[in-house]
């Protein structure tokens, strides 16, 4: 099923599939591809169309919050485009998905048309099951498409935002309440770091509690600070961190910052990295 969706992305000229990863507990696949603005928009639409054909949300279960078969499509400026370009593309893509596929679409982050919808967790509130009833309320009506969930594909969030790091930290406990308490302590909406979003979930296949995190601004809150804060909070419950993972791609700068911190490097410059100098022709 995942390969069929990936194939439609691969089939768009000018688009390069960079990475994809699936997780059985989250029951979610994260796909990253790049290309010219119009080509990326086309690939995203075709992927959403194929997902609607293949995925039945009435049968979907997973630990990660979601509202539809194509849960979220973020457009991210990397090179040669601006955030304003991505906002325009997100709104165009959202309209196409809503009108052509009859899937309700919510615009979020920089593309949001309503200030209360800038936050993706707010858009996902109630998830697929809760949105079935809530979508008919004025405050939950979609920005594009019908005011009812697609019978199999649910709804989709489309937005424009800076690069985000999906970073998960696994705890040495099967008590999900500990993970939820730590997530509440670090996320911005509960008084933690403003650019951090976090949830506590259970990895049933490993019987391990996890703090699943979106690092929305790694320059403001670097990965090592996130990890050290989670370690400190976990210690309050007598729990250790047993591992962490990055889902999808990550900016090299974020990893170099973490390396410099843990190696206690003095006066380290990123242009000291061999591969970086070769790539830049320095």
TrEMBL record:
InterPro entries: Formiminotransferase_C (IPR013802), Formiminotransferase_C_sf (IPR037070), Formiminotransferase_cat (IPR004227), Formiminotransferase_N (IPR012886), Formiminotransferase_N_sf (IPR037064), FormiminoTrfase_cat_dom_sf (IPR022384), FTCD (IPR051623). It is an enzyme of class 2 (transferase). Residues 163-277 form the Formiminotransferase C-terminal subdomain domain. GO terms for cellular component: cytoplasm. GO terms for molecular function: folic acid binding; glutamate formimidoyltransferase activity; lyase activity. Residues 1-162 form the Formiminotransferase N-terminal subdomain domain. Its EC number is 2.1.2.5. It is found in: Cytoplasm. Its main location: cytoplasm. Pathway: Amino-acid degradation; L-histidine degradation into L-glutamate; L-glutamate from N-formimidoyl-L-glutamate (transferase route): step 1/1. One of its GO terms (biological process) is L-histidine catabolic process to glutamate and formate. This is glutamate formimidoyltransferase. The gene is ftcd.
């Amino acid at each position: 099923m995942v390969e069929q969706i990936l194939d439609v992305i691969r089939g768009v000229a000018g688009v390069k599939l960079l990475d994809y990863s699936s997780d059985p507990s989250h029951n979610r696949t994260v796909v990253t591809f790049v290309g010219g603005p119009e080509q990326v928009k086309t690939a995203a639409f075709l992927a959403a169309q194929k997902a609607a054909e293949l995925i039945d949300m009435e049968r979907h279960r997973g630990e990660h919050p979601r509202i539809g078969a194509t849960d979220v499509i973020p457009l991210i400026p990397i090179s040669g485009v601006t955030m304003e370009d991505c906002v325009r593309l997100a709104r165009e893509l959202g309209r196409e998905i809503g009108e052509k596929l009859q899937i309700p679409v919510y615009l979020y982050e920089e593309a949001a048309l309503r200030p209360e919808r800038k936050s993706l967790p707010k858009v996902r509130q109630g998830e697929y099951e809760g949105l079935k009833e809530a979508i008919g309320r004025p405050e939950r009506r979609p920005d594009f498409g019908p005011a009812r969930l697609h019978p199999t594909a649910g709804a989709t969030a489309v937005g424009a935002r800076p690069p985000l790091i999906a970073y998960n930290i696994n705890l040495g406990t099967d008590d999900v309440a500990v993970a939820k308490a730590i997530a509440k302590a670090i996320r911005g909406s509960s008084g933690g770091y403003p650019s951090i979003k976090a949830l506590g979930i259970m990895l049933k296949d490993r019987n391990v509690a996890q703090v699943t995190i979106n690092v929305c601004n790694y320059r403001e809150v670097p990965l090592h600070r996130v990890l050290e804060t989670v370690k400190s909070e976990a210690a309050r419950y007598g729990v250790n961190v047993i591992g962490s993972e990055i889902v999808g791609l990550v900016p090299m700068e974020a990893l170099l910052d973490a390396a410099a911190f843990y190696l206690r490097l003095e006066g380290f410059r990123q242009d000291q990295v061999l591969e970086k100098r070769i790539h830049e022709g320095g």
